[in-house]
Amino acid sequence: MSGKIFIALFSGINVGGNRIVRMAELRSFFEGLGFSDVSTYVQSGNAVFRADKGDAAALTKQIEAAFEEKWGFHSRIMVRDFEWFERLVRENPYPEAAADHTKLHAYALEREPTADEVARLAEKCTGPERFEVKGDVLYLSAPDGLGKSVFASLIPRTLKVPGTARNWRSVVALLEMARKSGSD
């Protein structure tokens, strides 16, 4: 089978009853753009798909523009390839936290943060959370869970690098889905 497997992570859809996009509609939308082997995971907007041409950056632009045209609002979308996801899981600096998916999160960032941006974020991290940035991924270990983490709510406006977070269960599930699509 030709083409390459990608994963698209949407941000700001189906959160708190706003900007509702049904996953069946999202699958049709991807198929309508000419992608194949499309599958979605949970309601927050995750799609695994196969594209015959284009890289992650080009696909991001294409999908964001088409999405806004169809649904009438902008959703920031991070498109990453299978190898990126494999590396994300392999390089997890907090393997001991991976067992409880509510306590480990990965943020796909639009770009690699600068040393200054990371340092500014580190100043705000007074515990119990820990974080590590590897390339364009921020790993967050939040022992009390993301919902109770004051630090987690500071990440977007302190780091100032757009990104979207997924809990570890979603990360692992998406990698599995991509692996299955790739082996067909």
UniProtKB/TrEMBL annotation:
Domain of life according to the entry: Bacteria
Gene3D superfamilies: SP0830-like domains
Full protein name: DUF1697 domain-containing protein
Organism per entry: Mesorhizobium salmacidum
